[in-house]
Design brief:
Layout (H helix, E strand, L loop, with lengths): L2 H14 L5 H22 L5 H5 L3 H13 L4 H20 L6 H4 L16 H7 L12 H17 L3 H5 L13 E5 L5 E5 L2 H13 L21 H15 L7 H14 L4 H8 L4 H4 L1 H17 L4
Antiparallel strand pairs: 1-2
């Protein structure tokens, strides 16, 4: 078994059996190739499965140290280690290699950080076309960006989930339910507020492109599928207009959705379902965000704080 064939079999396994998200599979493949590229000069030859079986923990630590020297953070290092370990364990189960060296390696520690939501007034302003009224851009583009950001905040979607919506599923009816496919192919339904449905309808009414029912709902300036990068750039311009911090990213609107629901008495289990989290422990981090916010308000307002 050649290493290239082993990698191809592993990627097929991730997609068909493990059902990992496409982006995760791409990241794992990229991480593994970076590891192999490091090993070539480190070992003095292009590694094969036998060479990988003979790795020592020190070789893996040398790779992590080199990546750290390149400025890679702990979270990325943890993912890279997970991808390489996944490949080696798969190869070991197939009888092609030994993954013993990876058993002695601990994942890098990640400092605990809380999501940074955007305040309700600013979150609403981000999905308001008039906030960007002075920009020299077509009105339909402003309406499109407002619709996407409205879905992120109003429905708690990830940006990839919003851009994956097909035209036939466009949520243009008030209080309609939107079927969303999230990470790992997990499907969920989220309600669509009348304000969000109105934003989507305004975009469709102004969009100059004819969109087939099975095509992506949101289109780029030249008619192709909208890139996440365009929404990130639009968010950067809005940050400047509203004076928001660098943490105000499109994903921060999803954090805002959860935090604001919780602050208004939303049930944690319901928020878990709306976000599509597989584990309640992932959703519980928002209780800490809310507690932090309450303590900050207490310290700012209480005369004895």
């Amino acid at each position: 078994m050649t290493i290239d064939n082993a990698i191809a079999a592993w990627l097929t396994h991730l997609e068909s059996e493990r059902r990992v998200a496409p982006k995760t599979g791409e990241a794992y493949a990229r991480d593994l190739h970076q590891f192999l590229a490091f090993l070539a000069p480190h070992l003095g030859r292009r590694p094969d499965l036998a060479a990988l079986s003979g790795l020592r923990p020190a070789d893996i630590r040398a790779f992590l140290a080199a990546r750290r020297k390149d400025g890679i953070g702990s979270r990325t290092l943890m993912r890279q280690l997970a991808g390489c370990r996944s490949f080696m364990r798969f190869a070991e189960r197939q009888g092609w290699a030994s993954a013993s060296a990876f058993a002695a390696i601990r994942a890098p520690r990640i400092g605990k950080s809380l999501p940074k939501p955007i305040g309700p007034a600013n979150a609403r302003a981000l999905a308001d076309v008039t906030t960007r009224a002075g920009e020299d851009r077509p009105q339909w583009v402003l309406a499109r960006d407002a619709a996407v950001l409205g879905l992120l905040y109003g429905c708690g979607l990830r940006i990839a989930e919003a851009l994956a919506i097909r035209a036939r599923d466009a949520p243009i009816r008030p209080m309609s339910a939107l079927q969303v496919t999230g990470k790992g192919g997990k499907a969920r339904q989220v309600p669509v507020l009348p304000q969000v449905a109105g934003l989507v309808k305004d975009y469709l009414d102004q969009c100059p492109w004819r969109i087939a029912p099975d095509e992506p709902l949101f289109r780029g300036a030249k008619g192709g599928p909208l890139s996440p990068r365009i929404i990130q750039l639009a968010m950067a311009r809005l940050r400047g207009a509203l004076g928001l911090a660098e943490t105000a990213t499109p994903h921060a609107l999803r954090h805002s959705f959860a935090t604001h629901l919780l602050a208004r008495g939303g049930d944690l289990r319901t928020i878990q379902e709306l976000l599509g989290h597989a584990s309640l422990s992932t959703t519980q981090i928002y209780t800490e965000v809310d507690t932090t916010r309450l303590m900050a308000a207490y310290k700012a307002a209480h005369p004895r704080a």
